[in-house]
Automatic annotation (TrEMBL):
Entry annotated with the keyword Metal-binding: yes
Stored PANTHER family: MOLYBDATE-BINDING PERIPLASMIC PROTEIN (PTHR30632), SULFATE-BINDING PROTEIN (PTHR30632:SF0)
Entry keywords, A to Z: Metal-binding, Signal
Protein name: Molybdate ABC transporter substrate-binding protein
CDD domains noted in UniProt: PBP2_ModA3_like
Signal sequence bounds: none
GO molecular function: metal ion binding; molybdate ion binding
Pfam hit, one: SBP_bac_11
Gene3D superfamilies from the UniProt entry: Periplasmic binding protein-like II
One record GO biological process: molybdate ion transport
Family matches, as NCBIfam families: modA (TIGR01256)
Length: 286
């Protein structure tokens, strides 16, 4: 009986998360002078009620630092306020599809953007930067991990992104399948998270031995890294565009163009995202 009650509560919470009625700690408002995370349970409706003229930006959780920096600069230069919803790609697309609210999508991978485009949620994409996968191990590499193939070694504690919720989770799934080690890796997985940020927290806390992250998420104080072989086969392309249901399409397009400008790409480079068109990743196709 107790298990049935707990399952019912879990299903209710998941439903609320998807519809945007319950979004713990992921919504932020920006203006020309400040950027503040909203803690606790905050709804999209509540946030927009407090900022009725603002643009609502849906952005991948791993893009938070450059996107907020770009938003602040954009507001300073244009006077247009922006607010954000930072989530894993699966949650973002579900919220967009259900609510039809918001103005811009910035996805951590072009596959997620293409899914939104196929659903008619967004228009033509612009490409901004690269999300480069990399193996992250604990500082000093105590488990002597030397390659992605070592994820299959028995006894490792592995943390990975959720395959359906995160771009890095989808990428990892493809990588492990290509190497023929997906089943062995899964036996070592102790946590799958709905955002890449949660994987970083697990690595920083020492609760996992190894993870597949991206260059921009690496903390040199707590992690060492190992490159992914043939990485260009797995590099993600950050894609953005205006929603098809924006009530402020001209302002939305203005923000999209600003993100795609040299100034916007410089913000991404500042946080270890190679800019789209970088010579090293010229063979990567969105």
């Amino acid at each position: 009986m107790r298990d049935k009650v707990m399952r019912s509560i879990l299903l209710l919470c998941m439903s609320l998360l998807i519809t945007g009625l319950l979004i713990p700690g992921t919504l932020a408002a920006d203006n020309a002078t400040s950027s503040a995370n909203q803690s606790g349970n905050v709804s999209i409706d509540d946030l927009m009620a407090k900022n009725p003229e603002a643009l609502l930006i849906y952005a991948g959780a791993g893009l938070k630092k450059p996107v907020q920096e770009i938003g602040s600069t954009f507001t300073n230069e244009t006077g247009i306020t922006v607010v954000y919803n930072f989530q894993g790609s699966g949650a973002l697309l579900s919220q967009m599809d259900i609510t039809h609210k918001g103005d811009v999508l910035i996805a951590g991978g072009s596959d997620a953007y293409k899914t939104a485009e196929d659903k008619g949620l967004v228009g033509e994409p612009q490409y901004i930067a690269y999300h480069v996968p990399i193996v992250a191990v604990q500082k000093g590499n105590p488990k002597n991990i030397t390659s992605v193939e070592d994820f299959a070694k028995p006894g490792l504690k592995i943390g990975l992104g959720d395959i359906k919720a995160t771009a890095i989770g989808t990428t990892g799934d493809k990588l492990f399948k290509d190497l023929g080690i997906a089943d062995a890796v899964e036996k070592n997985v102790v946590v799958r998270t709905s955002t890449i940020n949660e994987l970083v927290s697990a690595m920083n806390a020492g609760s996992i031995d190894v993870s597949l992250l991206t260059l921009d998420q690496i903390s040199d104080k707590t992690m060492d890294t190992i490159p992914v072989e043939n990485v260009n086969d797995y590099v993600l392309v950050v894609a953005e565009g205006a929603t098809t249901f924006s009530k402020q399409p001209e302002k939305a397009q203005k923000f999209v163009d600003y993100v795609a400008s040299d100034a916007g790409k410089d913000s991404f480079k500042k946080y270890k995202f190679p800019a789209y068109g970088d010579e090293q990743y010229k063979d990567v196709q969105p």
